[in-house]
Amino acid sequence: RKALYAQMRDLPAQTHDDVNISLNINAGLLIDVPHVIESGADGIGLYRTEIPFMVRSAMPDIEDQTRLYNRIFEQAEGRPVVFRTLDVGGDKLLPYWQDMTEENPAMGWRSIRITLDRPAVLVHQLRALIRAAHDRDLHVMFPMIAEVAEFRAARELLDRQLEREAGRGFVPRSVKVGAMLEVPALVWQANSLLGQVDFLSVGTNDLLQFMFAADRGNPRLEGRYDTLSPGVFSFLKHLVELCDDRNVRLTICGEMAGRPLEAMALIGLGVRRLSMAPASVGPVKEMVRSMNAKSVEQYVLSLLDSPSKSLRSRLKAFAIDHG
Ligand code: PEP
Ligand code: MG
User: Which family does it belong to (predicted)?
Assistant: First the structure.
């Protein structure tokens, strides 16, 4: 299979009916980055900047970060990299930071909430990103956005840093700013949100735990709710339509995007960009090249009003029937 995936590396992720799907990788450590080339992915759809913060014994300063982000750009060899700003708290703790024990960490003081409350950390990170992105395309994404006002506050911080760094000679070739959709409330502000973001990326790991009110790490709830279920599909279908109407680029970057059956269903719902663990690119590309987007779409849409708790077995049967 490895040999097959290597052979497919330079072939497009295109369905039988000529629908092109953009496949990207999720990365965190520097050693993940070369996989973008090896796997033949289009770019890095999610660079988790907190990972290098988590493996260090002290907070990296602006120079450390600039060096790191520079190397990521270099190793990505011109492929686009979407940098997600620091997403700590919840299940991701920094050993050298204040004690963050909370009753309910997933819904606690985490992610953008921390960085907006402690803007110095975010400001340093944004300066480092801008410096590393000099003459390059900068994609910045803010995590765990729950309302448009948070996105605006974060973007304003970025705009201020862009202005400041321009005065020192650091000017990215282009700047695109996006939000991660991980909190269901944000969809109910879609009208104003979609006028302000350059792109949206759905973090289904967090989003689904909030949609079902079920902790993503609790083994007792494992298997209780399925990502392949009518409620999730209706939600995503609605979101795809909103983004298509407003011409906002939508990516799915949670773990489900890297599972072939899930990826098939997402494409059936109209999703055209996926970001996944590097090892998933081969299997997902193989699936994409064997599917027909139109027939999957028809089938997936026929399941939207199903009362079943999971659509998995039916989708599996469909996938087998259709090669
Ligand atoms: C997600 O929540 O789906 C996501 C991609 O972010 P993380 O897994 O890093 O929380
Ligand atoms: Mg998340």
Answer: Belongs to the PEP-utilizing enzyme family.
